Each structure stands twice: as C-alpha cells, then as structure tokens.
Amino acid sequence: MVAVVVIFFIYDYWTHTYFKRLGIPGPPPKPIFGNALDFSKPLFEVIDEYENKYGPVVGIYMWRRPLLLVRDLDMLRDIMVKDHHRFYNKFPLPMSSGSFDNALFLLRDAQWKRVRDIMTPTFTGKKMKMMSGILNEGADDMVEKLLQSCKEDGNIDSLELFGSFAMDSVASCGFGLKVNSQKDKDHPFITHGKRFFEFFLIFNSPLFMAVSCMPCLRPVFKFFNFTLFPKDVINFFTDVTEKAVALRESHPSKQRVDFLQLLIDAKNGKSKMANENDEDDIHNKYFKDAGADENILIKTQKYMTREELLAQSMVFLVAGYDTTATLLTFASYLLASNPDCQDKLIAEIDDIAPKRDDVGYTTISKMPYLDQVVCEVLRIYPPAVVTDRECGETCSYKGYKIEKGMQIWIPAYTIQRDPTYWPDPLKFNPDRFTKENREGRNPFTWLPFGAGPRVCIGMRFALMEAKMALVRSLQVVRFEISPLTKIPPDVGLTSLLSKKSSYTLKITQRH
Ligand code: HEM
C-alpha cells in the first residue's frame, strides 16, 4: 500500500513538473490539484494575475492536465490564423452530450470542416438581409415591454428584457417558432432553453472536474449513458426541430427564410457556396480582420446528416442566446453610464432609422457610431472571456515548445483590457473604433468573436441582432442609471461573462 502511495505521488510530481522541464513559467502547482483551486475566483481575475506575474505565455495545471495560456499577439496570429492547420480543433468535452455531440463547436477534423463549409453560406450578408425582417418583428414584443415599464415604475432588468428578446430571435430564426418570452415565461421552449444554460455551471461541478482530469472514467460514464446536457432538454429540442423539418419538407408553402430553412436546404444539397463581397456589408471587414478566410476550408463533399442538422439548430440556442443577451445587457449599462455617448447614438438613430420600419440590415450597416458603440462594449465586456485551441502537431514559437494534444487558452478579456493596447482601458470610449483609430491597430487586440477559420460563425447575425435591438430600444426610450443599478455590474466566474443576477436600469420614454 505504501509503495502504491509513493508511486502515485512520484507520478503526480512528474506530471506537475511538465512545464518546468520545458522552461515555461507558471504558478506552482499543488499535489493532485495542480492550480485548479485558484479557480474559485472569477476566471478573468486568475488569468490576469498569472499573466502579470509570469508573462505572456504561462503553463497551468488543471489538476494534472497541463494547459498553456497565451496572450502574445504574434503567437496568437500564428496559432489562430497562419498555422491554423495545426490548431483547428478545440479541446474535446470530457463527456458525451448525446445528439448534441454533432454541434459545430464540438466537431473535430474532417467532420468540422465539412459541416462548417456547408453552414458558412447560411451566414452571409445577403442571408442576414433576408432574415432581418424576422428579427424586427421579434423586437416588437421587446418595445412593447419597454413602453409598458415606462408606464409603471420605469425600472427594467436589462438581462431579462434582452434575454427574452434573444430567446425569441433564436426560436424564430433557428426553429421557426413564434414565442413571446417577455410575457409567456412558462412556454416549454423557454423553460427548456434556459435549462441548457445550467450546463455552464457544470464547468465548476466536481463531476465535470473529475472527468476532465481522469480520462479513464470516460468509458464508465459512457457505459452508464451519462450525458453532459440533460437528456430531456436535448430530446425536447430534437423533437421540435424534427417536427418543423417534417412540416416544411412535406408542405413547401410553410418554408421561409430562416436558419432552419437554410440548414434544410444545405442538408438537401440545395445551398450554394457564397463568396460574396457585399459592398453594403459593414460586417464583412470583421471577418477579414479576424483572418477568417473561408477559402482556407478544404472543399469537402456537401452533405449533412439528419443528426448533424438537428444539432446545428441547437447551436443557435447555445451559442447565440446567452452571448447576445450579455452583449445587450452591458451595452445598455454602458450607455446609461455615459449619457453623452447615448445622445450621440440617439442622434444617429434619429437621422438614419427613426421609425420601426426603417430598421433592417442595410440601415444598421450605415450607422458607424452604432458600430463603434457595439465594438467598444464587446471590448470591455466580451461575453466569452476565453476561447481555446488544441495543438495537433508538436511545434515551437518564440522558443516555447507546444506539444501535440496541448490545450491553449486565448484570453480575450485580459487582452482587451491591457493598457499597452488600450490606454485607460476601463473608460468607455467608442471613438477607439473610428475608421482612423482602427487603422494600424493589431487585429489580435480585439477578439470577442475569436479569429481564424474557427472564428464565430454567427458574428454577422449577432451584430445585426444586437444592433437592431439597440436601435429599436433607443427609438422609444433612454437608458439611465437607477439607485438600484449595481455599479460595477456583476460578472460571472467562468468562461462566460454573464451571471444570474439582476441588472436594473431606469428607462424614460422619449418624445
Ligand atoms: C455577441 C454574440 C456572440 C459572441 C460574443 C460570440 C463569440 C464566439 C467566440 C469567442 C467563439 C469562438 C471563436 C474562436 O475560437 O476563434 C464563437 C464560436 C461560435 N459561435 Fe459565436 N458568439 C456570438 C454569437 C453567436 C451566434 C448568434 C451564433 C449562431 C447563430 C454563434 C455561433 C457560433 C458557433 C457555431 C461557433 C463555433 C464555430 C466553430 O467552431 O467553427 N455565435 N462565438
């Protein structure tokens, strides 16, 4: 018995000296836990401390698993864009997530390439234009809620308001369903949708940590058919999508331009590769800045299985709901705290899109100040604190050896608040994103959507959706700080910045 314990601790010590042997600095690991115990604090705080103490490349141990934190911009350019062929996978989840395993952000290698290649045309500027009408309709319920709150005490919970808007947008664009989350909180789509997000709490659960660190347990979980997401939630969304697909396939008159239809067309081989260069599309440049050359993707055979289609519908919910709600929540908070910027934005709205029916993809693409505001909100409060890559081939950069299989963390949050790139980083200043100020700036200093071929595929949609929601809101109300507003606002502990908390603001009716 003593021999087993001794061997265990020698092995533990050996694995925890991995970075020392490679000459990569990092916080000293504790036996068994590595550095995992540090993560009881918010993730961005821990990352910031590590970077300040150990520099731009830091070796960390999540229990015994080593991972590399990289904030060196040249290395990030190589990892995310230049040498993407070595780093296009993300680190796999330790447990199966049932049929959701086919979701784009969980896919790997050739399957990822094929599905991404098929889905890319779904997100072009032209498709966004076609879909903006659906979003504008969905914003009507949000505007009604704002006007009703003005008549009451004038306080709103911005996360609830914008979360409901984001949920309705997902329901209508991703699943072809009309729901009104502002009123009907008990709709099964909403209750099941919200339960999906309990998933993110899993990252801090002992079960998840144990499985992450002890890969030998994976077959055990597989044998007992444990899944990461609640099975009834997956079954609910699978069922909703199956019925919608069957209806549209049997009744062509029920078809409309939304994500679901675009996916069905892709599955049936009807979608075309789009390599469009839309002059009107202000959002095209983000793809270029992010080095997202979609031609990099190997053109594979174009088919999508039924399981893949069902999983991509859920992707809109998981990837698009919380992130967009977070962006809008912090946007309204920062506008309320900076009335001059809000005045300037309202002036632009009154000039270009003063009425409901003026709001659409083309008009919002012509609003430079709106774009500056949204970019600056995403800089201070990126909804995804970190993103990651897995190294597929041992290589070296700037003298740091990165071995095959290593997980790399890319800390957007700390880079975007680094005073070297962003003087006075906590000051909300949309002028950082004027055309002149953008020029010459390293694109890897602004990474809210990631970069390279694995950049957020929903970026255009998210920007359109958030901008339309802001315009529709500011056409009718102003955001103000209320005595109930928490300053600074609460933020989450994990890789997502949102938190189940109240984000109260006061609103006053315009005109
Ligand atoms: C403000 C809103 C959003 C933010 C901040 C955001 C952020 C991100 C980030 C940081 C990544 C990882 C990129 C990388 O590793 O380089 C990502 C990936 C992804 N996002 Fe988004 N996202 C948003 C909205 C959306 C929406 C609305 C959708 C779908 C309609 C979406 C779908 C995806 C998908 C499918 C991926 C995985 C892409 C792949 O692995 O190929 N996102 N997003």
From TrEMBL:
It is found in: Endoplasmic reticulum membrane; Microsome membrane. InterPro entries: Cyt_P450, Cyt_P450_CS, Cyt_P450_E_grp-I, Cyt_P450_sf, Cytochrome_P450_3A. CDD domains: CYP3A-like. GO terms for biological process: prostaglandin biosynthetic process. Its EC number is 4.2.1.152, 5.3.99.5. It catalyses: prostaglandin H2 = (12S)-hydroxy-(5Z,8E,10E)-heptadecatrienoate + malonaldehyde; a hydroperoxyeicosatetraenoate = an oxoeicosatetraenoate + H2O; (15S)-hydroperoxy-(5Z,8Z,11Z,13E)-eicosatetraenoate = 15-oxo-(5Z,8Z,11Z,13E)-eicosatetraenoate + H2O; (15S)-hydroperoxy-(5Z,8Z,11Z,13E)-eicosatetraenoate + AH2 = (15S)-hydroxy-(5Z,8Z,11Z,13E)-eicosatetraenoate + A + H2O. GO terms for molecular function: heme binding; hydroperoxy icosatetraenoate dehydratase activity; iron ion binding; oxidoreductase activity, acting on paired donors, with incorporation or reduction of molecular oxygen; steroid hydroxylase activity; thromboxane-A synthase activity. Heme binds at C456. The keyword Iron applies. SUPFAM superfamilies: Cytochrome P450 (SSF48264). Its cofactor is heme. It is a multi-pass membrane protein; Peripheral membrane protein. Pfam families: p450 (PF00067). Keywords: Endoplasmic reticulum, Fatty acid biosynthesis, Fatty acid metabolism, Heme, Iron, Isomerase, Lipid biosynthesis, Lipid metabolism, Lyase, Membrane, Metal-binding, Microsome, Monooxygenase, Oxidoreductase, Prostaglandin biosynthesis, Prostaglandin metabolism, Transmembrane, Transmembrane helix. GO terms for cellular component: endoplasmic reticulum membrane. Belongs to the cytochrome P450 family. PANTHER family: CYTOCHROME P450, CYTOCHROME P450 FAMILY 3. Monomer. Catalyzes the conversion of prostaglandin H2 (PGH2) to thromboxane A2 (TXA2), a potent inducer of blood vessel constriction and platelet aggregation. Also cleaves PGH2 to 12-hydroxy-heptadecatrienoicacid (12-HHT) and malondialdehyde, which is known to act as a mediator of DNA damage. 12-HHT and malondialdehyde are formed stoichiometrically in the same amounts as TXA2. Additionally, displays dehydratase activity, toward (15S)-hydroperoxy-(5Z,8Z,11Z,13E)-eicosatetraenoate (15(S)-HPETE) producing 15-KETE and 15-HETE. This is Thromboxane-A synthase.
